[in-house]
Amino acid sequence: MSIHHINIVVKDLEKTRKFFQLFGFTTIHEKTISGEWLDKVTGLKDILASYISLRHENSPVTLELLQYQHPEGGIDPKISSPNQVGFRHLALEVDNIEKEIERLEKIGIEFFSEIQTNSYGKKMCYFTGPDGILLEILEL
After folding, report:
1. How many domains does one find in the chain?
2. Residue 115 in contact with residue 72, Cβ under 8 Å?
C-alpha cells in the first residue's frame, strides 16, 4: 500500500493553484467533474466541481484540488488551528528553511513563529495558505 494523493477542497481554485506553484507544483490534470458515480461516492446530490491535480517533481504523491460549484461548501472558522481534530497540515520539505522563509515573506506569507527545532532536531515552521490551509515548512 502507498499514498496516491491528498485532496483539498478550496473556495478559489485558481488562487490555490497559483499558491502551490510557488512551491514548484505543476498541473498534471484539469477538468470539471460530475455524475452519478461522484454523487454515490460522496453521498452528495447533483455535484458539479472543478478539479486540478498537481504534482511536485520530488514526490510521487499528487495533490488534488477541488472547488465545488454545487453543492457549495463552507469554511470551518477553526480550519487553521493546529489542535483541530481531523486532517491538520501538509508538510513541505526544503533544503534551506531560512532562505525559503525569506523568499515567502517577501511575497506576503506570514508564519506562526520564528523557525523552531523539533524534538528530532528538524527545523520547522507553520503558515497558512488559501482558505486557511495549514502548512508546515520543514528542513531535515
Report:
1. 2
2. no
Show the cell assigned to 84: 483541530
pLDDT of 88 strictly over 90: no
Length of the chain equals: 140
Query: Sorting pLDDT into bands at 50, 70 and 90, what band is 136?
Result: very high
127 three-class SS: strand
SS3 letters for 73-85? Answer: CCCCCCCCCCCCC
Are 9 and 37 in the same domain? Answer: yes
In a domain, 82, yes or no: no
* Residue 102, in any domain of the structure: yes
Give, in order, the Cα–Cα distances in Å from 2 to each of 8, 80, 138: 18, 27, 22
pTM (two decimals): 0.89
